[in-house]
Structure prediction request, 895 residues.
Amino acid sequence: MFRFGATRSFRIRRGHDRDGAWTLPMWGSAAICLVSVITIWAGAAHIIGEDYRRTRETALHDTANLARAFDEHVVQSLQALDQTLLIARDAYLQNGVRFDLPRWVIESKFRTDVAFNISIADRSGKVIATRITSDPVHVDDREYFRFHANSRTDTLHVSKPLIGRVTGRPGLFLSRRIADETGHFAGVIILTIDPAYFTSFYQSVDTGRHGTVQLVGTDGTVRARVAGTDRRAGQSLDGSMLLASREARGIGSFTGTDPADGVARITSYRTIPVYSLVVVVGLAVDEVFADTIRNRNVAVAGASLLSLLMLAFTLATLRGQHRLNASEFKFRSMFDVAPVGIALVGSAGDIREANGAFARLADREETEFRGRRIDEFFDGPHGGCYTACPDENKRGSAPPRECEIRRPDGTRCTVLCSSAPASTAGPLTWVTMQDISERKRAETDIWNAAHYDTLCGLPNRLYLTEVLDAMLSAAAASGPTSALLLLDIDNFKVVNDTLGHEAGDLILRKAAERLQRVRTSSDFVARYGGDEFAFLLRDYGSERDLMRIARRLLRALGRRVIYRGQTVEMHASIGIALAPRHGAGRTELMRSADLALYCAKNLGRNRAVMFEPTMLADAERRYRAVNSFRRALDEGRIVPVYQPEIDLVSGEIVGFEALARVDDGELLPPASFAAALSDPESCRLLGRHMLDQASRDLAHWRHAGLSPRVAVNASSYELTDEGYANRLLGLLKERRIPFADFEVEVTETAMLDDGVPAVAHNLRALSSAGVSIALDDFGTGYASLTHLKSLPITRVKIDRSFIVNIATDRESRSIVDTVIRLSHSLGKTVVGEGIENDAQFDELRRLDCDVGQGFAVARPMRAEDVGAFMLRNLVERGSRPGADLFGVAIAAAAP
Prediction:
């Protein structure tokens, strides 16, 4: 145990001279007491000041990180909502007055839990379309309407909180300008959002009882706010510190009183210029400094006790040695109950004494410290906090620094360590240690929340971009070979649609686990988003080694998963890009890997494909083809032509197949836009256009007395939409077309695509209503006989590749004969496609084929030529009893 007075400098002479004056030793004891008290209070003041400073810096750092995360949350939310506005506006511009907004809301799976309403107002401010039925409403006096009316820029506008005139509820109004063909103002499209949607971020972070999260306009008006239970919005912050600080800088922090509730807070803000918004996160000063105030009180109490003990010690010294033990006991008691770890250290770093708090921090007994060096218990450079700056220890108090105490079980405890001289007369140093492990863990939790995916536990997209940028920088500097592998789970949508999102989440977690098992210590695995993962390889060796690793990944991901007793097949496709060969920057490298992944998907999936420059050229060609096709569609140059199908026995017309052509003065074949049909959205747009045009033409013919059956082709992209059947039946009902007069042709590959359950659902719904279903191009795909049996196929169309040699090739004839017999045995009508000469025609009729189609029968014709063709067919075959030849003639003459 350390004893005061153990060194020569602490000894005090007792007694007075005969005149009653103090002796020199007494003056020395008094001086020692004074210096000790000053040191105690200086150390306490130093600790308190440093604690306040670090607490404030930590609070500023935390609010800045939370503001950054809130910034990303708001931007992502606004981008998603803006995308909804843009899609709705495009649909309105394409359909005009025929645009059915409520139906669009249902079909587009509009999120009513986020947005109260979506409306369209014309150039006068009158609301002409809205999701919610209401009395006539005008919005021409609304600030957002005037903003778009007076501006020619197409930007997203976020309004102040207002009471909706349609919904009657307070909300934020997100709006976009609608322009006519000349670019002039034609109205606005408005999305009404619950302000609480943006402040839901408050629920995911810990800002204390009086912390706040706010979304403020650059005009000073609060758009959304939450502070505890206070969720008021719409207040003006004119004259506040926030506006004054934001005008000076776009990003910053300050400490001040919130004018909304009078609470003093440490606040960080970030300006989002593109949306004229400011995100604000604040922590209450009282809550931030609560622990600091308690520590201050403890330090003051401790310093007071030390001072009193020092005075008592001096008096006891003057009164006699017999009071020394009592004084020492008091000091020891204070030393032991101090809430921070304290050690008295000699000049060689040897521990003279340590209190119980230090022992608890180090998870040791107090007796274990005596005679040992203090750096034995610390990790870090120079052995920890005491010996890191020995010169500072000699000069005076050393600045606080973070250190780690090493415990016997191998764990670490992070402490804030300070040191100060124990006296000016001896080589002893006080070392104090404050446990900050919880604070460090909180900082780590905040960082992990921003950089890791909560479902899979893998690094997220943000973390991936940071690591990828660092990897590419290293590759540019030292030239190591690196590779980026993008992995996409095949048929993931099918699992979600058929088994539910729980099964989808299980697939994602299993994929993450398997990727983690394959990776080495130098590899990096991240969840890129949705069902996509990224795998970074550093210094992978040769390309052969890289492909071997890719195959290992495919095998790992290809193992089946058991979900609730049901076996789920799991496969993946991989796109590979090399750095820096396929991209020196992150964006370029990600694009290359994504193109390779797209190619892997198109080649049949469950494979790995490395990027090649031709993929980029193909992608650019597809992009140009899609743009050209969309332009032709918008300009009305995609028109239907109709190719007749006739009964091979009677010669009677049994129907027409609607085929798409580009009308550029002459009808161009499908090859002119085939490249654009690799784009799913282009296929859907073409399908809707053909349905609209074919049903319109059929309704016109029926009005003229004709009733041919019309067939349209449906792509797999359309059939995987569960609303396809309802949409088609609704269109036929609207135009008063009997369902039996319409046919949908599907290819074999549509039955093997991602959305097989949805395809089957649509086909059965159409067949149940009376719409005929034809299996097109039979024999060229992978359809099994099971599909002929299980799906409601009415007609089988034999592909022209089997018809072309039917009159000269015995094997082709045998195949066609077998298909005809099989189809007839299943009750299906058979159509021979691509008949180009009389020999093929006669051979098909000899084989009992029911219907024929091809150039030998008739070439595809425009809609206005169909009536005349049917009239000629009736005349050539002779009029049937009751045939309305006059009506047919009128239809033939109609433009």
Summary: DSSP finds 27 helices and 33 strands in the chain.
